[in-house]
Structures
1.
Amino acid sequence: MARDPKYDILFEPIQLGPKTMKNRFYQIPHCNGFGSEKPLSQAYFRAMKAEGGYGACCTEYCSISPESDDTHRVSARLWDDEDVKNLSVMCEMLHEHGALAAAELWYGGPHAPCMESRSVPRGPSQIPSDFEYLTYAKEMDKDDIREVQQLYVDAAIRAREAGFDIVYVYGSHSYLPQQFLTPYYNKRTDEYGGSFENRARFWRETIEQVREAVGDDTAIAVRMSCDMFMGDAGTQLERDCLPFVELCDEIVDVWDINVSGISEWGEDATPSRFYPSGRLLPWQEAVKKVAKKPVLGVGRFTSPDLMVDAINSGKLDIIATCRPSISDPFLPKKIDEGRLDDIRECIGCNICISRWEIGGPPVICTQNATAGEEYRRGWHPEKFDTAENADNDVLVVGAGPAGMECAMILGKRGMRRVHLVEVADDMGGIMRWIPQLPGLGEWARVVNYRKIQIDKLRNVEFIPGTTLDANGVKEYGAEIVVIATGGYWVGDGLNGCTHDTIPGADASQPWCLTPEQIMRDGKDVPGARVVVIDNDGYFMGVSLAEKLASEGKKVTLMTHLGHIAPYMHFTLEAPNQHRKLHKLGVDIVTSHMPSRIEQGAVVATHVFDEDGHEQTWEADAVVLVTQRRSNEALYRELKDSVGFDTLRGEGITACYRIGDCEAPRLIADCVFSGHRLAREIDSENPEVPKPFIRERRVIERELAAV
Amino acid sequence: MSETLIVAEHLRGAMRDVTGELVTAARLLGNPVAVAVIARDPSRLEVTYEGVDEIVGVPVEQAEFENDVYQHALEALIAERQPEVVLLGFTVNSMGYGPAVAAKLDLGFASDVHGLALDGEAVIATRSFYGGKVDAELEFPEGRPVLLLIRPTAFAPAPSGGSPSTSAFSVEVPSSRARHVDFREAAVGDVDITTADFLLSIGRGVGEQDAIPQFERLAEKLGAVLSVSRPLVDAGWMPNARQVGQSGKTVKPKVYLALGISGAVQHLAGMKTSGTIIAVNTDPEAAIFNVAHYGAVADLFDVADELEKLS
Amino acid sequence: MKIVVCVKQVAVLGDEVEFTDDARDVDPDFLDASLNEWDSYATEEALRIRENAGSDGDEIVVVSVGDGDVEPAMRRCLAMGADRATRIDHSGSRDPITIARLLAPVVNAESPDLVFCGVQSSDAVQAATGTALAELLDLARVAVVTRIELDTGARRATVHRELEGGLVDVTEVDTPALLTIQTGINQPRYATLRAIKQAEQEPIQVVAAGEEGEPAYRVRRMFAPPKGEGAELLDGSAADIARRIAGIVQERLK
């Protein structure tokens, strides 16, 4: 189908200083765990988006010097000519697809822990980082300022050498240039501190010098946070940012506008739990009103209508996307081809970001199992080769995230027939009820996307409302069987803290409940006082606490961990979730583990109390978010009771497990699990993942010589 | 004499609206219009439409529709009156005997017709194919009557009035092989947006979750079932069961009133074959207007408030 | 008892459409095929009657009209559990009266106790083949059936006929009879892969089409319906718009 003319504006070229960008789709700088040291993973990852129609793609933050070393996290680096070589692959591949390449030159100041380089970062004032532990900067004197500005210039020259078309002087997320602009970081009393003019001086001078060095043929981008949400201490739109835009508009080619500082950058990389698309538009619009140069910015845009509206209403010139481009690198192409229902929309879960926060494993995505696998596994999100055993019929039992993904990819790989059999009357598995938790509605896109795709696949049939036992599977007539029966929250309190059940925990009692019982089965939560026991540490415990508290219950959220939901720190959801629970009056009890539960009370001890003093919380209801287990009964029956040999006698050549049914895991990992099996269904042993390419230095010598 | 013959539809002693719509359709063909009323006491059923030339009462024993009765009566009427065109409603009743008459008498035939025209002397009927996605003009064999089942609501009802002549036509009807026993109201089950006649559908335009109860009330007042577009399900404000669209339910109500729905393709795929689509949106470019029969560029809350006052 | 189920393989049109050169039909490249949804309910109903009240020797026979390309739909019915299938070889006019004429002698030769058709087909929506066929077979008939209670001994059935607006007409019908089956009367079963594979191996009897006569209509021209132009603009104040909407709603729901 052809593109709807109302989206034409998204495909109009735009001038960025000396460079022309072919359309309005811009992949904002974002991390992927590859940096300069996994150069092919880096290049293939970015190039996939260029192939998918992006007009420009950026590196993640790109360190300009060993003084700005973010190890344990992974950034790109342009420290020397070897880095130039490595990043030049990315530039070349982007150029092959007609996309511009951008490098986000980064100097972290006190936020750079320099754990690898053991260098000392320099900063405007000597105040320890509000983001890192025990990280101080050397307070810069005038010589330091000149030297650091020269580091920017040298890195910009290297960037141009590598083939980058756009270089950033990056300030957002509380990095060095923005630190100078911000009283929270800048306590100087010389001409680089105090008044707006003084605070702006470092950034402006740096932009000027970079421009002088490379500006004749390289576009200069500035990324600025327009509100740090910290009152007078932070950067403010009217006081600092709009004047800065006016001050520097002449020497900047494109403005990249966002909000937040580093310690709460979830205000920028907004989880869908708290913010819809386009949350940053008011700030972007304010800048657009004063800037003569193009303005770009993120907003987790997945809908072309919102994109067009942002441009037509004068809020943005260029639609920048980070997470939506991970979720669907082909977003621009699908809009261009009128295939809107093929767009794999970002769900805003921020599991991608969690990997950077953890410290550098490759990026993952709940929606796009191929994200990060472009080079090392050779996976393409839109291309599927016909399986060598495509003449087989496949039965997939269970239509949760893993089963749906597996059936969909098997369908795309041309298997003769794929039957996706589900007990419930619709697809989704756990994703039928998880999106009903407070704020998680967009997570339903995991189901929506796959439902639409499966519906289009003539060789995949969805069979709802059908329970298969081992005999049913045996008789079904498939050559390949995939068991994707999911998992469940235990009802006896078994948990990862004590590795035992909790005495008295029994979800068959009316006052004791599991997440599924509440969300899926509609089991009534009795009484006014509820204790939610969370030994899981991600979204389930806090979400149920929030839900029950907003329904008027008096909720105590108890965890053995030092913080509630520690994983939500990585997804940037933690701060606002804390605010929400606080506002709802949820009583938070950390470092406590129940020693027993009885009707009416939870008895717990402090995990570090060697004497084991017990404390009692009165409770009309107890919600057990202790651990999950696999629903593996069907698989075990097939393997242990019927036996794979018998199955082979029935023509079933293989029986696999995927997703939670094998071991409970992240939704993203369930999807990956289903995808991986389908991608490798014709490998020698599909049960075991094929080796992937590990980008590493290999020593060329005989082992015997060691 | 060439004429267009209509068979009136009535149920439990009341004339059905489709009869008036058939009169409008019949008048497009130019010939005199006769309306046959097949009933136990035809005179008790009023046919008061402008443009009707003759009302033919056909008294029968049966008070309610039975297909053998209607088939026999219509066959006799055709034999007697030699109409050029016979129009019935595309209704459950007509489905039970219209095609049988056409098969028996070798008539030109089409059903679910929503457009009628004359090309010279020839009747041209327009109807949809392939799930309503395309239209086709049909022509019919020459020299025989054409029997058409007309889609309800495709034509406006004829205005009331007229002073037709009346006649009676008696027909001997054999005993029915399928006999009416009783009427029952269908059981009211859970909310099922796929079977509702009237959907009030709301979308992103409602802005916030707190606004939803207002539309639940409005739906109840209007006698509509509330459905939603995907952003509201995405936001967790409404359950999936209420979602219209490709990833939700496909619906085909008689009336689809869309408030604040822009009309993403996935949404349109789920509702565009609805009988009558009315859309209210502040954006005159909204895609929903491409499939709507009636559109208003207005604030949905203003319109909702006014609707609530009316009902 | 023998039940004949008349089924159709329907054409499913995607979002894009192009027409044949003579503009009388859709270019077949733009069409997908599947078993008509209504016919899957009709098949299921036949299977249920056999399962609930059947006896040895009961038979469910699927009959369809078309060329070899329509056999996948018939095989789907076999996979669901129908016993055998007969295809009436035909590639001409597909108007419902012609199809009924072609079906009649073949169905008649089966001397069925019941004949089921779907109420309508999703691609043509004529809702006519079944009723026309009943006439040609001289069978009692009821259209748009949502429930069937058979009284085999008394040679009759009590059926529900679903009228517009949800009203149910309870009708007593003599058997043998032809019933056109509405969706929702049951939940059609799914065929397992084994059943699908077995059905692929089963023979389909092919019989030559009889006299088809003159078609009940001919397509003069097929075209994409005019887009959007139909939207009549409601203007004025919010109160004016609301009044118009209320009027339209009232009119359409009557």
Note: The radius of gyration of chain C is 21 Å.
2.
Amino acid sequence: MADFIQLLMNGLALGSVYALAAIGFVIVYSATGVVNFAAGQFVMLGTFAGVATLVNGGWSLPAGYLGALAAMALFGALFYAVVYLPLRNSPAVTMIIGTVAIGITLQNAALLGFGSWPFRLVSPFEGMTVDIAGAVVPVHAIAVVVTTAVLIGLLWLLFNRTTLGIAMRAVAQDLVAARLMGLKVGALLAFTWILAAVLAGVAGLMLGPMWFADVNMGDPIALKAFAATIIGGFGSLPGAIAGGLFVGLTEVLGAAYVSSAYKDLIAFGAMILFLLLRPQGVFGERIQDRG
Amino acid sequence: MRSLLGVAALLIVGLALSLIVSEYTLRLLNLAVVAAVAVVGLNFAFGYAGLISLGHAAFVGLGAYVLAILTTKLGWSPWLAAVPAVIGTGLAAAVLGYPLLRLKGHYLALATLGLNVSFGIVATNWIDLTGGTNGIANIPGLTIAGHELSGERPFLWFGLAVLAALALIAAVIHRSRYGRAMMAVRDDETAAAMTGINVTRMRVAAFTLSALYAAVAGCLFATHIHFISPDDFSYAHSITHLAMLIVGGEATIAGAILGAVLLTFLPEWLRVLGDAYLAFFGLMTLAILIFLPTGIVGLATRWVRRPAPPQADAAIGAEEASRP
Amino acid sequence: MRLTRRTLLSLAAATTALSMAVPLRAADAPIVVGATVPTTGPLSLTGKQYFNTLTMAAEDINAAGGINGRPLKLAIEDAGASNSTAVSAFVKLIQDTKPPFAFITSYSTQNLAVAPEVAKAAIPVMYAGGADAVAEGGNSWMFRIRPADSVTARAMVQFLKAKLRAAKPGIVYIQNDFGQGGAQVAAKQLEALGVPVVGTEAYGQNDKDFSAQLLSLRAKGADVILAFVYPADGALLLRQAKMLGLKMPILSSSAAFVPAAMQLLSPGDLDNVWGVVDAFVDPSAGERMKDFATRYKTKFGTDADPYGLAYYDGAMLMADGMRKVGTHPKALRDWLAAVKGWDGVGHVYSFDGKGNGVTDVAVVKAKPGTKTLELLERVKLD
């Protein structure tokens, strides 16, 4: 039983990271219709922004976190201007290839800048653990779960209670109508990319101390985030969370109780099953709405 | 007639190159030819039927693995082994296609991506059959009338012949009733259904055709390199195949071939840039997508036809397609 | 037009004259040796090590007068993270520089993919991929400068039985050519020794959570865990084992002890952990090792690892051969195949009929409460 609780907690912590990566992906998709294949590289950059400020720069924790997130915001704006704007009228598949291409550039630029050695970010809760019913849980993992929950609350407030968020949703629903209503569509789309980059930054900073950071960590995260998104529902924030947790839990529990060699087949098999039986996912939009 | 000319041009250019270029370039040409076979196949699924498949490499891999297993474990001749490899892959695509192809757009893209990842997991862990991550080595090469296609040059000649034949078949299908039906399904599903086209069957047919070509590419790959492992068929290769098609100019056979050649050679040419070469490769691919939205073929057509009227309708159509 | 042709003709004549002049100057022309090294992608972590040591070896060789007066030059191409890139890199090297000798990567699948091209090029190469399948391929041009995976696995099993007195061993391995091969050999050996494994668990190359695998082994009653790992995941696995409160000893393969992995660990993570490493790269391991390790650290700012050392030794061995029999590939191959008891920095190299040069490994353990490794014993297998 203690083992089961331990696995459950580890699965939840892992799932929270996937969920955070998936949220950044979903926000971009709902607002711009872009399937961002560089989403994993966004998270990787977030971690390395932290490496730059905290490890290489030697800044204090709050300053380092803020500096890294500011850098990510800048990166989001840059991505909007250099990748999204020129390609925004291209077919969906061109956008997919475009984000893959820029992902290759980001990964190799990080390799040039930081080298191939793995880094370890220090956690604010370094070495602290708590005992939950016989399971040893690092405080950092709990912090990850809590931060994810708080961020989701804030996002909900943004999209439902602020003019900015409601305007963003208007753009997501009908761009032409939003423009006719006098909304600054360009600025709102730019803000969407900035928000996604900052969220990826948070994910990157939080997973840095749990895992080790290396410049090749992006793609595996993106794959799991894709699976999470499909399972939860393509355009849905609650879906991204449910999907992320589901993928994290299947990974850990599947390895424990089914087969450690085939555990990823369970997550991706579930993803394909969902696509076939319930393509809108758990919480998702109706599939007919999008192509 | 135009396609005959195109194939003739391909053969002449290929043969001429095969006589003058170095061994290293010959090898890259061979890689490009193998990729081109796969991408001409992908053109059925994406270019004609509009199915975004990110699982093409899995079908290349399936073909390659069947051939490798039959030749190395059962001692079959690669010619004989290629038959079940290609037919089996086609069947697998048809069986998978029926449920999968109800999905569209991003959903299909991610489902096929999942399929590709799953293929990799099985190939990695079914050690008795696939050799696991160590892969399968010592795959025999092809022989023609007692002559082994061991060097890069003879292999290129053979590869070119296969590519030319398959490109010709693709061109014939493109112009046939079936080709038109596939494109009708791509352009307007409802209208196509109303004219009596069986939409699902057309999709599955396009998907299966693309898998058949992929399996041929897989057989060529295995007999060229003589070694396969799961890494050779990862989803990254599927994305590369799609990129080749887009960069070359989608929905055209010439574009598929040109794209395969360009994206095979581009990273190798960029090697002179040293450690930064892959970073540049990504940027250059992005630049091609931005500045040549219709690919290399589009550029060539524009060149020939000179001032084309601004395609306002097409641009609006594209915007709508990419918008939610 | 006629002028052009005349120019061309004279150009051709000049080229012929030039090419005829080259052999005369060959006595001091550099000897170009090829190397394919992963400098991009995930494999570059280890690739960087031998990129460095090969450069260092070339400098050392040239400082000692080169190869009988001729300087040595390295031509290095990126082997990337895929088999195809590795083969392209090798073919390009052969094409561009026609080297009499080359180094290829430390990844078995790349080695297997490149093997047919090596046979075609007919030059001797040294490689550091561990999989036994590479040597079993019967390619007589290929020489392995690291212990084969089965050697490591057998040494681990011996130590496990004799010193750790395991009765119910469990295995955890990374799902790649190295981990799969090592786990298979170890399971078979343990079976033969009468201590069958109680559980075998796998994890993916990119996995970050090993709780399921470790807890499952504990639940099955494993009294020792054998771990076949790569650097970063190996470090993470050791950390999580401690966090989960696993009490049994862990015997890990080489990669968890390379500097890139060690810098990620705390002393406590190494408690009750033993390592079977290719070679003990530490200043305390003798004068020559001290010289190598300190010079590496000064030059590149990080500690050297056994992979880097393997290529350094390999380069020195190659230079020795070239001094003795020249740069003709066949002669060099024959000389290498006959090498017995060549004393390198890391090992004493003797090539067997399949081109395996190293049959000894070292068992290490951190001094209690520190991350300083000490050598427990060397295990020599036949």
Note: The interface with chain A takes residues 40-42, 44-45, 47-48, 175, 201-204, 206-209, 211-213, 215-216, 218-219, 231-232, 235-236, 243-245, 260-261, 263-264, 302 of chain C (CB under 8 Å).
3.
Amino acid sequence: MEIKISVKNLDAFYGKNKVLHNISIDIPKNKVLAIIGPSGCGKSTFIRCLNRMHEVVGGTIKGEILLDGEDLTKTDPVLLRKRVGMVFQKPNPFPSMSIFDNVATGLRLNGVRNKKQITPIVEKCLKQSALWDEVKDQLNKSGANISGGQQQRLCIARTLAVDPEVILMDEPASALDPISTTKIEDLIFQLKKDYTIVIVTHNMQQAARVSDYTAFFYMGKLIELDETNKIFTSPSNKQTEDYVRGRFG
Amino acid sequence: MENGMMKPDFFFYRKKITSFIMMSLTFIAALAAIIPLVLIFYYTISKGITYLNLDFFVAMPKPVGESGGGMANAIVGTLILIGIGGAIGIPVGIMTGTYLSEFGKNKFGYVVRFLTDVLSGIPSIVVGVVAYTMIVVPMKHFSALAGGIALGILMIPTITRTTEEMIKLVPQTLREAGLALGIPKWKTTLSIVLKSAWKGIATGVLLGLSRAAGETAPLLFTALGNRFWSTSIGQPIASLTVYIYDYAKSPFEDWNQQAWTAALVLILLISLLSLLFRVITRSKYKTN
């Protein structure tokens, strides 16, 4: 099994407040890793560390995170984020841009100017995110004027456009209705052929459905990491068992 | 408790009456607020309309004693002055506002924010005197440039603070979306944040320009005024406000009338500018 991201002894802080304690995880390539745990356990902070978005909200880290063996704290965050994309909890398409431009903007602002190059990429990404058939006749409409579920798939298409290797998803379906959620989950299943995916979720059924591996976080600590099947059927840790059985959290 | 309904009692009526009185008071206050505006429009239109004809826009002022003539030089002059002012005030204001909002959470930002507020409180005549000392005196004559610079300085605080406030309204999630796409911070600020806040910023720019177009005091020391046609920025230049000031206090009935017309034209000019901005910044998309 090839390792895409290797996290070693990671501590994360907001100011003096330590929110992650000595986390070590190997994230396998082209698999889906789900991070579960109660609110405030550090799930979101953890995935933000993986593309250094924690810095945007004033976080700092200690420890090592290797992306293909390369220490990502030593690379430029701008270059890193092209390789490690992110989809947020609340769909956040750019409201002042059309659907087309929402997908194209990452390319354009990264220096791709040629329209002949951009158009097929936009189409490909919208198809990959299973949105193309719904929006192909309204690509000039504002990205904010489609439904919430469509907006989230637009955000995924936008992330795909800059051709990342890893996609981080921070509760991507928690603001969506069940049908949209199913679509996003199907999409995740499709995407793992080409991408390594780390998904934070509150929804344990979702973790069970979409992921190959599951990590359980509690109070900023990694309690257990194993194959998803095992976590949900016979976890080795008592706390994990209590959580997945719904006894707390 | 007949029919399951509560019977209205004394307190019920008292609350209803208090509510009615309070609402009436706010309505009267709202009415009082628009009275001055209505009066201004009434007087400028009724008194200014008599001399409002094509000549006023295309002809030059006539010498004392001759009736008729126009203020073509003053209309162009005002446009040139706010043009120079805008060329200084708009970029400086927008960039300062952007800095304050996106990068100004430090001591320097705090100081700049405070000083901008101080600047907005400085009487415009003082800005005029400073422009006089710094530009007119070394150049040894009054000029459109000096007037434009004074107006530009006056625009800066309005545009800066509006830009800052408007950019702050852009949701943090949009900045994060941009950064997470591997877009550098400066490009995210320019192409995503400023683009989203553009409408509000334009309103600030318009406010700045309108205020500048209506300034008289700083121009008296700087652009001075000109009875002749001049578009040179190195020479004294006419402006509507200085004409209004001169003509309104003159003893000639004819000039007093023209002052009203100049006031009307100034209001029309600002309204036109406002309309233009509305059209330019009209959103491509309907908001839901």
Note: Chain B touches chain A at residues 171, 173-184, 187-188, 191-192, 195-196, 198, 283-288 (CB under 8 Å).
